[in-house]
Amino acid sequence: MENMDTIRSSVNHHIKIGVLAGHFATNHSHVSHYIDMTTIKTKCNVARDVAGELASKYYDTDIDTIICLEGTQMVGAFLAERLSAHGSGMNQGKNISVITPELNSNNQMIFRDNVQRNIFNRKIMLLISSASSGKTINRSVECLAYYNGQLAGICALFSAIDKYNGMPIKAMFTYKDIPDYFTSPAIDCPLCKANQRVDAVITSFGYSKI
What we know:
alpha/beta; 22% helix; globular
């Protein structure tokens, strides 16, 4: 993609994201950069490396189930494997579940009866692709509460926020890696106020020019 910069992780140079500056709209905010995480989500060796880095932050956290959002299933599977394989961690030998919610016609997250046992009274890690405003996390936590899941941790491939309701968000990349990154409600967007047209719409599936 044109004019896209590459940012590599400071802890593992094999892990990288693409970053494109501009004016972008998501379903609940406007952001200053499109962050391309296709390589992390689709390349098994990179996903394995990312999972290893994230797992190291949770060896002392009891996890029963990883809920994967926004196309993070491959990372989630490797993350479960790493947590279970760590010899001195709380999850050693545990058969950690990895599941993805459905979205109903009202865009609400739901879990079918056959997987609800993996949530009810279970310690849950949320794994999200990008946390910009916290709204997706909030929706997920409300869903977990409905199914009586216990939030134990939040992981992100990229996060523009440090915490959610006091719980740290542990991310592979953060806003510190993109110093001029910002997110804003559409009504307050400084780029809109400066009459800068929206370049593209961003969803969890990627990028579509307008």
